[in-house]
């Protein structure tokens, strides 16, 4: 029997990258989307995170990425992707892109703070513009790449951890092939007999191995709809990039119990989801990452 005193947090990453049709007549699950100045994997991925967000913020040159992706090709879709704000020091914002969004009455906000990145400035803006109070949890999608410079990728993860610790925010980092998010450790003890782990329940809709192998075959309409709902592959990792941790898991192919993990030693990568829900207990913050299915233009 589970200890009811253990802090339990539920996560549903699929709702932030599900097909836009599934979000019709429902409130957008994310309060903000922050688009970074890094390659965007596909127009299909952009459509999904855009539809899932109540307000859109482009971090400086992130506006270039949106414009270039949506205005190129045989069909110009740039009119469908108008952000609410563009912010940062604006040194990367292309003049042509700036004129385009100014003509669409997008708020372009210069922030001269030299001690924060464009991402940090975007988070500050998201908090300032949010109708939610500081005490209410806020979900923010980050659309960015982890395939470029290593220092920038690690710096982004560090900023995510810092901002999430400072505010009531859950960040969902959507990169080329994965959704990644932090599983927090237990709260600081306020008394004796305090549980030393934090339980996380993660709901996942994953393609089975057989579905992945059959993806090249033409599915029936029913099969296609069911397959589209499964936004993740089974491939998952739990990474102790913020420091050593001890984890226990349930619902993975290779579950562990009170398992020590740290960089340079034991690390859980290339594991596989086997259940609709995965449970992770951890005594320190870790990064949970799961691979997305191919979205094409959906």
Question: Would you mind describing this structure in some detail?
Answer:
This protein has a ten-stranded mixed sheet, sandwiched between helices. The protein starts with 7 loop residues before the first strand and ends in a 6-residue tail after the last strand. The model is unreliable at 208-228 (pLDDT under 50). It has seven helices and 15 strands. It is globular. α1 links the parallel β2 and β3. Helix content is 24%, strand content 28%. By secondary structure, it is α/β, with parallel strands linked by helices.
Keywords:
ten-stranded mixed beta sheet; 28% strand; globular; alpha/beta; 15 strands
Biggest sheet, spatial arrangement of strands = 5-4-3-2-6-7-8-15-10-13
Low-confidence stretches: 208-228
- Helix share of residues? 10-25%
Distance from first to last alpha carbon: 43 Å
- The count of DSSP E runs of length 2 or more, i.e. the number of strands, is 15
* Assembly of the depicted chains: single chain
Q: Helix tally?
A: 7
Q: Estimate what percentage of residues fall within beta strands.
A: 25-35%
* Computed Rg: 20 Å
| Overall pLDDT score | 86
Order of helices and strands: EEHEHEHEHEHEEEHHEEEEEE
* Class from helix and strand fractions: alpha/beta
User: Which term fits the overall shape?
Assistant: globular
Q: What does the main sheet amount to? A: 10 strands, mixed
């Amino acid at each position: 029997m589970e200890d009811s005193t253990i802090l339990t947090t539920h996560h549903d990453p699929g709702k932030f990258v599900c097909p836009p049709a599934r979000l019709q007549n429902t409130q957008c699950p994310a309060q903000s989307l922050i688009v970074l100045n890094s390659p965007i994997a596909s127009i299909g991925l952009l459509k999904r995170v855009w539809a899932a967000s109540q307000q859109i913020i482009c971090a400086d040159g992130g506006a270039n990425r949106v414009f270039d992706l949506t205005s190129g090709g045989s069909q110009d879709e740039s009119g469908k992707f108008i952000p609410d704000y563009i912010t940062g020091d604006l040194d990367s914002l292309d003049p042509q892109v700036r004129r385009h969004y100014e003509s669409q009455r997008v708020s372009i906000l210069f922030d001269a703070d030299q001690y924060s990145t464009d991402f940090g400035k975007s988070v500050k803006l998201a908090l300032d513009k949010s109708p939610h109070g500081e005490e209410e949890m806020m979900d923010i999608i980050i659309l960015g790449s982890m395939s470029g410079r290593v220092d920038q990728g690690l710096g982004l993860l560090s900023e995510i951890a810092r901002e999430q610790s400072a505010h009531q925010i859950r960040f969902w980092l959507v990169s080329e092939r994965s959704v990644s998010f932090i599983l927090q450790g237990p709260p600081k003890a306020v008394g004796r007999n305090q549980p030393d782990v934090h339980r996380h329940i993660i709901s996942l809709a994953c393609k089975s191995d057989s579905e992945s192998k059959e993806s090249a075959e033409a599915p029936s309409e029913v099969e296609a709809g069911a397959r589209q709902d499964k936004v993740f592959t089974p491939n998952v990792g739990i990474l102790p990039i913020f420091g050593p941790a001890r984890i226990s898991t349930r619902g993975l192919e290779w579950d562990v119990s009170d398992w020590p993990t740290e960089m340079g030693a034991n690390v859980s990568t290339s594991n596989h989801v086997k259940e609709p829900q995965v449970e992770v207990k951890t005594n320190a913050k870790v990064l949970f990452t799961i691979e997305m299915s191919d979205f094409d233009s959906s």
